[in-house]
Write a structure and sequence with these properties.
The protein contains four helices and nine strands. By secondary structure, it is of the alpha+beta class. The strands form two sheets. Strands 1-2-3-5-4 form a five-stranded mixed β-sheet. The chain has a four-stranded antiparallel β-sheet with strand order 7-6-8-9, sandwiched between helices. The chain is 29% helix and 28% strand. A hairpin with a 2-residue loop joins β2 and β3.
Length: 242
């Protein structure tokens, strides 16, 4: 008789792994959080946006980090059509904002890095998994840029990661998969840095309002989840020898 699957506690993350996934990009990992899988790559370009600031001699004084997000056609039971949509645009802007909080752009003048997050399998938390995996890919790409002499100083400030939290049956719950997400009375995505500072908080009372005490409980739980994810990021970088 097969063993009964272990029930995840409401304060536990789903099983999470971040591993190398070989592509032609300078940084490339697959992050898995439960059933959710996202391929995160980071590509280097020596042609940054022309609107970036320059000095009097015409040299760039800053770099740029941006992101793109897509769900692959087979990532959901009903085929996801290729091409941009409003949800994807909103998510990729979020990813880009959070990743830029992880770097000192003035230490990477003239360098642009685009982090692509392609959802292979969607079971909730795709935007938060994308942020967490993309930071590892970004760190890889920055290490490559330094080895190639494209930048002299390390612009990384520190890790950033994100996790979802919500109120399920009146209780704060960490890292919502799809079945939990559709039941959530409150749904929230929280991005934080390695110091425990908030970068972005997106929260909605899906089925009513929520109190200040509930908000505090959700943010505290998100903080615990992010700290665990940052440990996974560091383990991944050590395995990648970055």
């Amino acid at each position: 008789m097969p063993a009964k699957p272990k029930t995840r506690k409401r304060t536990e993350l789903r099983p999470t792994t971040i591993k190398r996934y070989r592509t032609a990009a300078a940084g490339s990992v697959m992050i898995e959080m439960g059933k959710t899988k996202v391929l995160c790559t980071a590509s280097i370009s020596a042609s940054p946006p022309k609107w970036l600031p320059k000095d009097d001699e015409g040299n760039y004084v800053s770099g740029w980090v941006t992101a793109e997000y897509n769900m692959m056609p087979g990532s959901t039971p009903d085929r996801k059509r290729r091409g941009p949509d409003s949800r994807g645009t909103e998510i990729q802007r979020l990813i880009g904002r959070v990743l830029r909080a992880a770097v000192d752009l003035e230490k990477m003048p003239g360098l642009a890095i685009t982090c692509d997050c392609d959802v292979v399998f969607a079971d909730g938390g795709t935007r938060t998994a994308s942020i967490t995996g993309a930071w590892v890919a970004l760190a890889q790409a920055i290490a490559v840029a330094r080895k190639q002499g494209l930048i002299k100083k390390d612009p990384l400030i520190g890790p950033v990661a994100a996790v979802s939290v919500g109120v399920i049956d009146g209780k704060a719950t960490l890292d919502l998969d799809y079945p939990l997400d559709v039941r959530a009375e409150v749904d929230m995505n929280v991005a934080m840095n390695h110091k425990g500072d908030f970068i972005e908080v997106q929260g909605t009372g899906e089925k009513g309002t929520f109190s200040r005490d509930e908000l505090d409980a959700l943010l505290d739980l998100a903080g615990k989840g992010v700290r665990k994810l940052i440990r996974e990021q560091k383990k991944a970088l050590a395995a990648l020898r970055v």
